Amino acid sequence: MINKKENLVSNVRECVQNGKGKGTFTTIVPIEDLRGHGRLFSRISLEVGSSIGMHDHTEDFEVYCILSGNGVVNDNGKNIEVSEGDVIYTADGRVHSIENTGDKELEFIAVVLYDKK
């Protein structure tokens, strides 16, 4: 199956996970096509100063792959600057958040898959 970019569905969300500002979530793979293995496969664009608030991953895990821009990830209590090419992995009850601290949109791929140990 090919899903052309003009057919991808985008939604603007505010204060995601009690974060700040707005983010645009563009679905790459719809949840029904994840076949029960996950709940998110999206390209996310955070406006300057916007964030996804602190949240945990206990029965699932999340991977962010930074495509462009600059930000800060709170990785289980430790703030780390991130930029293009960086990958963030959060699992095993750990917590994280991400904030756009740059001067342009922060874009990344986010995938949440269920932990099937």
TrEMBL record:
<dbReference type="InterPro" id="IPR011051">
    <property type="entry name" value="RmlC_Cupin_sf"/>
</dbReference>
<protein>
    <submittedName>
        <fullName>Cupin domain-containing protein</fullName>
    </submittedName>
</protein>
<dbReference type="InterPro" id="IPR014710">
    <property type="entry name" value="RmlC-like_jellyroll"/>
</dbReference>
<feature type="domain" description="Cupin type-2">
    <location>
        <begin position="44"/>
        <end position="112"/>
    </location>
</feature>
<dbReference type="InterPro" id="IPR013096">
    <property type="entry name" value="Cupin_2"/>
</dbReference>
<dbReference type="Pfam" id="PF07883">
    <property type="entry name" value="Cupin_2"/>
</dbReference>
<keyword id="KW-0479">Metal-binding</keyword>
<dbReference type="InterPro" id="IPR051610">
    <property type="entry name" value="GPI/OXD"/>
</dbReference>
<dbReference type="GO" id="GO:0046872">
    <property type="term" value="F:metal ion binding"/>
</dbReference>
